[in-house]
Amino acid sequence: MKQKLWQLLAALVVLTMLVPGLAGCATPTPQVVEKIVTQVVKETVKETVIVEGTPQVVEKEVTKVIEKEVTTVVEVEKVVTPTPEPVRKVATFAWTQEPDTLNPLYTNMWFSSIIQQLYNCWPWEFDDQNVPFPKLVTEIPSMENGGVSEDGLVVTLHLRDDIIWSDGTPLTSADFVFTYDMAMSEANTVSSQYPYYYLDTIEAPDERTVVMNFAEPFAPWLATFWKGLLPKHVLEPVFEAEGSIDEAEWNLAPTVGCGPFVFDVWESGSFIRFVKSEDYWLGEPKLDEIYYQFVPDDASQTAALVAGDADLGTFPPLSDVPILEAGGLEIITQNGGYAEGWFFNFRDMASPGARDVRVRQAIAMALDRDAINRDLLLGLTEPAETLWDGLAAYGYVSPDIEPWTYDPDAARQLLEEAGWTDTDGDGIREDADGNKLTLIHGTTIREIRQDAQAVTQQMLREVGIDLQILSFDADLFFESYSNGSPAALGEVDIMEWSDCTAFPDPDHYYWYCDEIPDDENPWGANYFGCDETLDELFARQIATINTEERTAIIQEITKYMHDQVYWLGLWVDPDYWIVGERLTGVKFSGVTPFYNIMEWDLK
Amino acid sequence: METTIKKAMANTSNQVEVAPLSLRELVWRRFRRHKMAMAGVVMLILLVLYAIVGAVFLSESYANYTETSIRLQSPSSEHPFGTDTIGRDILARTIYGGQISLLIGLAAVMVQVIVGVLIGAISGYYGGWIDSLLMRFTEAMFNIPQLFLLLVMARFFAGKISTIRFLGRTFSGSVVVIIAIIGLTSWMYLARIVRADFLSLKEREFIQAAHTIGVRNLAIIFRHILPNTMAPIIVSATLGVANAILSEAYISFLGLGVQPPTATWGNMLDGAYNYIESAPWLWIFPGLLIVLTVLSINFLGDGLRDALDPTTVT
Amino acid sequence: MTRYIIRRLLQAIPLLFFISVILFMLMRSTGDPVATMGGRRTVRSEDRARLSRLLGLDKPLYVQYVYWLIGNDWAKIDTDGDGVPETPGDRRGVLRGEFGKSLVSRGREAWDIIWERLPNTLLLMIPAEVIIILFSLAIGVYSALRQYTFTDHLITAGSFVGYSMPIFFIALVSMYVFAVNFKRWGLPYLPTIGMFDPQVGKTPSEVARHMVLPIFSMTLISIAGYSRFVRSTMLETISEDYIRTARAKGLQERVVLFVHALKNASLPLVTIVGLDIPLLLGGAIVTESIFAWPGMGRLFLDHVSRADTPVVMGILMLISVAVVLSQLVTDIVYAWLDPRIRYE
Q: Which residues contact A525 (CB under 8 A, 6 or more apart)?
């Protein structure tokens, strides 16, 4: 009996000791890899040299510095990140979310899309003003150079002739057509077929030309098409063999790419490593290697950045900003088109307050948005007036818009004029029938949003409006109409989240009247309401190819939405970058953040 | 196996009785001797007073008053416990949060007791296939760790109820949700105990006698058997309050509990570990209050257990 | 005995079915995995319709349960949206060993994702369980032998405080003292985040260093509770007749206590510890969140908030199986240790 108990305990103790040992054993053994490496060596060779001053020709031994190709055997430790050697420039980026996949068609994750910029390529990219410049194409198609037809139905891309994939295969129009085919194929569960379903047909008359035919003019084509290309010569065999590219190896290990860097290895849960591409047609990037290090959460990102273990980080929690700045790191904000704001529900089932434009205007004047930005967001950003603020470089925002200022007295007066008075003295206004001015506000459970909810609730109470606040998990808030999402059903009067247009295009699809969800159309995205004027304006702008005309329509939209307060901006939600001291030459874009990654250098 | 466990939880302190006393007096005497239990009672009374009387000095609107310019201030004379991320006074919030936490504790236990006793009584008394079915159900619920169940159920009921006015206070409807789901996920243990007691008691002579003279089943259950099982129910309920407060703290800490701006001690700790270095007063005060409350309830429960029935299992 | 084991295992099967039905209904009734597939933006209507159809999310609840259980390669799904199902499915179902593909980490098998994280949680739980057993026994016996002394009262008071604390409070306090303040005072400090420092790599010593604080938080509460339990059973056992006999026979006190008393006193502890697995797993969720430990608890939290049913159901079923098995093992071990127990 005693023996049994001791046996049991001994077994347990041995088990405990085994477990960490097993974990240790899980570290993979180093791999031996043969690589072809260009080495710089000094060699002594015999050369015939003319002795200076004399006509004599002599054989001399000369030491020359030449480059030789040498096959070396290199041991690659997969788990331990190598310390940067003096000659190699290795940058480490701390990433708080591990990508779900690296195939551009299968993910909408921002943390994946921007990694794709290193090894994938777009026909045109966008600079720090979010203005496009050509990359794969010789010039950006437009009406002036004939790239866009007069009626706007045909867009022709002329590709450069020196573009190649990283394995040497030329990049041709066939790859464009293949990408389109894969996106539209029913066998692939791609995350989005937008905007490819707007294409009527696509043709490749020769290897350097892609012709896109639309059934109706589609103005947003420049900002939405070709956000990543698939290599036909790699993926077509997979598609034909398996019937789908859902499980292609390339999705998780895109070794063949067309960007300035080449994918090397993805250690799940640890890091992704990229090395510079030797054959990139635009030259060589300054950095030799880039590591995307996955850190478990924001706190470890901050720790890594402050310790100097990482050179770049994203989206620091506001509580860590003082720590980061004290550590010598720079916080750069880049407008990516996102703005956090209140979407007002003016459908029939919304509360009478939300449907009254004067109440909405009063709300706009009752919120001290400067205080919110200054105190809650530490002054890192500023209030937004329209959803198009991020496109300032394009001039879409109407110059006639007068920003709402914090004026609680004017708000109270407006509410009185609208017939909302506090008859029973409880601080909340009622209308003539005695209905209380109560609005229901819903958002997700992020801390900054809940803080903002409490603050704005108080600001509105001071002018006599009762804001009832609810918060949900994101997947419950944005659930489908059939599953009873409160937003889709119209049960929430004010919905708050961060959104953008088809940035850098001003197109938006939320306010179309036929997008209102109901039993026939449960997937509709218009949780807000049908305004015929707005519906017509949006429908017109998407088909207007002429830039001046389109800008005028967008300006009309911005002014109308601002005056009707269909959307009230709280703050601009930029991309936050934390840049370490070692990195130089860094510039960001709101659309293609790593557009000048080739210029990035380490001190 | 049953007897061994029963004996294992026996009180080992020596009791000396002088003259026969009534049951109530007996219990009270035993309880009084338990010094820690008395300390627990005192602490509990103080905490309840803190939550109730404190509300007299600081109004609810003061507790909810945000002033972002004074956010994250360390404790000072004006704000003895400091301010939180949007400038609310933490002292006031712990007072009103305490009301909610205690309310949740008590109400969840009521739910738990009602469900557990009902299921245990019916199962134990009627036996047969009802017993089998109910016990299978109990076992199934028992086998899923409570926290996982709470998380899944919290999402199921999220956002269904908006604000509630109760006893002069306005708070989020998620409080009702939390009460319901904590109650509905912790009755299993009580059901088992009640069932075991019913199984053994229903064979006793006085119950058979009641049958013989024609007392109806329901009356037998509630007026004859149940009063004899009160001891474990009381002890379990008392400790259940502590458990409920802790469960609420856990689930609010994970963000799925009571929704802000309604304060509870649990949700004041949500996200506090981001400020562990820069603003420790955010979590120290509500955390300490939770510990003190649970501690005093545990003392009380321990004392009750020893006093009511020294051979009870918990 | 074998018959008993087989009977228990057979009883476990309908139990597990029942559990799976309850959990699946709860999971699928709430949350739309497609809703968060848009990244920073909301998903477009056409994509929502298409993805819901392709992922089988538009079917009624019981049909989804059947597909989860036994797959859908015997049924056809409608891939092109014309309302006519024509493509055979490709899922084999749980009963044939496939938990399904994760709806969040697209393209990866749910089982692979869970399997990646499982060892990390076991790495916390198994040492924690052993530490709990050893320390509870040690402290409980020590306290029992010195009943009513100052040490005993101190330990009892400490135990009360210990199991009155919520686990995250212990975690926060230990973080604050051992990590933050130790660093401030220049002492060697313990790390608070993750399983290993990425720069150093996943070495055993690095992992062990990171394990200290999480395990400390997890075990403190249980040790506090169980040491009191061991104390009372030890006291109870010591007053039994056979101990008196042993003393009367002239055996050494040490032999009496540690050979005869302890082994009988620790029997109930086996039962309780065996039933502790669910609690430990629950505590793991909170601990892993606070310490950013890449284990199953964090996986559960991340994926339940994005309604990833295959992964969440995989974790829950794994836990249920573990709990049922641990109950069975506990009963068997208990019978093995105590010859008086006999099952038919």
A: A509, A510, A515, A517, C42, C44, C45
Q: Who's near A463: CB < 8 A, 6+ residues apart?
A: A362, A366, A408, A411, A412, A415
CATH superfamily label, A90-335+575-602: Periplasmic binding protein-like II (3.40.190.10)
How far apart CA B300 and CA B39 sit, in angstroms, is 8
Assess contact for A526 and A319: CB atoms under 8 A: no
What is the predicted ipTM? 0.78
Spatial separation of the C-alpha atoms in residues C320 and C317, rounded to whole Å: 5
The two most distant CA atoms of chain A are separated, in Å, by 115
Q: Quick check: helix, strand or coil at residue C281?
A: helix
Whether the Cβ atoms of residue C189 and residue C179 lie closer than 8 Å to each other: yes
Write the DSSP symbol of residue B74: P
CB C178 within 8 A of CB C189: yes
Would the CB atoms of B12 and C18 count as touching at under 8 Å?
no
Q: Side-chain half-sphere of B285: how many Cα atoms within 13 Å?
A: 22
Token pair in block for residue A237:
């065999």
Percent of the residues in chain A that have a pLDDT greater than 90, as a whole number = 51
Q: Which of residues 130-159 of B touch C (CB under 8 A)?
A: 136-137, 139-141, 143-148, 151-153, 155-156, 158
Residue of chain C whose alpha carbon sits nearest to that of B248: C166
Residue A301: both structure tokens together: 């990102």
What is the radius of gyration, based on Cα positions, of chain C? 25
Measured CA to CA, the distance from residue A29 to residue A14 in angstroms comes to 25
> What is the tens place of the pLDDT at every residue in C235-280?
888 888 888 888 888 888 777 777 777 777 777 777 777 777 766 7
* Cα radius of gyration (chain A): 30
C21-56 CB burial, b ≥16 within 10 A, e <16:
ebbbebbbebbbbbbbbbbbbbbbbebbbbbbbbbb
Q: Given its phi and psi angles, is residue A585 left (phi above 0), alpha (psi -120 to 50 degrees) or beta?
A: left
Question: Amino acid identity, residue A508?
Answer: H
Q: CA-to-CA distance for C179 and C190, rounded, in angstroms?
A: 5
Nearest-CA distance C234 → chain A (Å): 16
Q: CATH fold of A339-572, please?
A: Dipeptide-binding Protein; domain 3 (3.10.105)
Tokens 């480490």 locate to: A92
Domain A90-335+575-602 and domain A339-572 have a common topology: no
The answer to whether residue B65 neighbours chain A at the CB level (below 8 Å) is yes
Chain C residues close to A13, C-beta within 8 Å: 130
Give domain limits for chain A.
2-79, 90-335+575-602, 339-572
What global pTM score does this model have? 0.81
Tell me the two tokens of residue C270: 């086996």
**Residue A32: per-residue pLDDT:** 42
Q: Angle at which helices C167-174 and C277-290 pack, to 10 degrees?
A: 40
Note whether B260 contacts A375, CB cutoff 8 Å: no
* B89 close to B74: Cβ distance less than 8 angstroms: no
Exposed, middle or buried: residue A582 (CB in 10 Å: 0-12, 13-18, 19+)?
A: middle
Q: Is B162 on the interface with A (CB under 8 A)?
A: yes
Cβ contacts below 8 Å, chain A against chain C, sum to 182
Distance between CA atoms of A534 and A557, rounded to whole angstroms?
Answer: 7
Interface of B with A in 174-233 (CB under 8 A): none
**Within chain A, which residues score under 70 in pLDDT?**
1-86
CB contact under 8 A, A27 and C202: yes
- For residue B35, report the phi and psi dihedrals to the nearest 5 degrees: -60, -40
**Nearest-CA residue of chain B relative to A456?**
B66
Distance CA B113, CA A151 (A): 75
Cα separation, A95 vs A312, in Å, equals 9
